[in-house]
Amino acid sequence: MDKTGIIVVSICAALLALWFVEQQKQEALRRQELATNQVARPILPTAPSLPEPSPSSFDTNIAEQTLALTNGRARYTFTSRGGGIESVDLLDQPETVSARWQANQARRNKNVVSLNARASVPILAVLGATNLIGNGNFTLTETDGVVVAEKNLSNGLRLVKEFRPGSNDLISASVRFENSSALPIHLPAQDIVVGTATPIDPDDTYFGTYGGLMWYDGVKSQTANLGYFSPATRFLFFFPRTPKTGYEAGMGNVSWAAAYNQYFVMLAMPQSPAHEVLGRPVDLAPFPGIEQATNATLDRGIQTSLVYPRQTLPPHSRVERQITLYTGPKEYRTLARIGEIFHNNADLTMNWGSGLMSFFGIGTFFAKLLLSAMNGLHDVTGMGYGWTIVVITVILRGLFWPLMAASMKSGRRMQALAPEIKALKEKYKDDPQKFTQKQWELFRKHKVNPMSGCLPAVVQMPVFFGFFTMLRSSIELRGAHFLWVTDLSKPDTLFMIPGLDFPLNLLPLLMVGVMVVQAHLQPPSPGADPSQQKMMRYFPLIMLLFLYNYQSGMALYMTVSTLMSVIQIRFTRLAPAQAQPPAPAPQKSKR
């Protein structure tokens, strides 16, 4: 291995080692906190309009009452403790578990995705001062598919919640505060829980990045993920960052708030904008049947709440908060339709990302186009999403074929000019400026564009960004099969290597093999920087490190795309082309 290769591999190895050490530090810190029971609900900065933090537990001396309703697509379990929705089981979303945890599958409690299941506070629980919530226990009744939770307090305040599940994954809900006394009641600030963002399964290693809270102010959305609250998070691995104990935002402009993970969302859309949105990190119950989670982020969730300011209720008056809930998959077409109905851009909960996460908007634009194309092709042909990715990739490569062919032909003409370029370089070795001038004159003379080799990559880069952005958030890939791949949203782990506890993922290895073949067939351009040429040799290694434990859908796209490049290179080489530059026209002799 040459010097450049040693440097590249060393840097990659050092970064991986640094990342591993940092992850172990975070894990150790989190385990220590759990063992010593030092993790408590964070104390948020006091503000006149915010409720005092209240415990997330309820009086367990009173027997819990539960009630379940189903609409065929979801099962809603209501609880008297908090008077809200304890969990939402999505009946058409099977739980998927990779090879690492399949041995524990028999001990799992449920075989479908369950939202808010491991949280200690139900959806639409009201938190706040003690004179607002009392012991936190409600009375549940159900009539004609409408669930009512009621609670009477000693000061004459009565809390009534109504839930009307519909057939479209939407729930019409209301939270009503009634003053049944002859005296005014000072109503404290209310913290109405939207839900708790939690990892879905033990393989949900992306939760720290793709899970958290989101809210919309009528113009743009804002997010806060688990890293926002983590005490062990370090900027660029090295510099400690002050952990946040809570997230607080909004000024009477909260159009909606959501608790989300990579593929599912609990979205609360109040009829009138809420005052503020509040986020708190909370501890979660362990996964059923799993003795130890893969990392500390799986034991943490983010509780999202709508906040309403304190006010005074006159005698025999009431105030009501009407809220529409969506609890289900982050399916783009469904969320876009909800956004059209409520005029609130609910599809932003797809969390395409912003800034670098969405490649500054490029990834978001192409992600929507590619997702629409993928869904359309799937609906028309009925083929699985794996084959849909293959077909779309082939179509895209076909569209770029003329550009690739022109680029390769230009590269072959440049290869033919290599001896002349070498001679110019030797002739003007002491005058780099003169060499550059003569080199460009040679290119113009033979109509060769040295930048043509970069053009295909530049044109295809937005498509790559779009695929990367789309595949990391597409619920359609979750549980989708392709050949040996059982779930395109997870790595295609065949088995865990005995003794190493390391997964064997085949698709990334095939991707690297095809990339090596491509690099062998595609010689470097004459005059290219030798150090850059050496760096490109190790590009497959970098991609392997990047995609080995990523979603197999992305590795499938990269494998097929690179394979198409190999086919194009072979086909273009077989096509007739002028391998040598045209000879200059003979000059007429002067008489």
Notes on the protein architecture:
The chain is α+β, with helices and mostly antiparallel strands. It has two domains: 18-51 and 64-351, Distorted Sandwich (Beta-galactosidase, Chain A, domain 5); 377-574, no CATH class. The chain has 14 helices and 24 strands. The chain has helices at 3-36, 130-133, 207-210, 332-342, 362-381, 385-399, 401-416, 418-427, 432-445, 455-471, 506-521, 530-537, 539-547, 552-574, and strands at residues 66-70, 74-79, 84-94, 112-115, 126-127, 139-143, 146-152, 157-165, 170-179, 185-187, 190-197, 212-216, 221-225, 234-235, 239-240, 247-249, 256-260, 264-270, 276-283, 300-308, 311-313, 318-329, 493-497, 502-505.
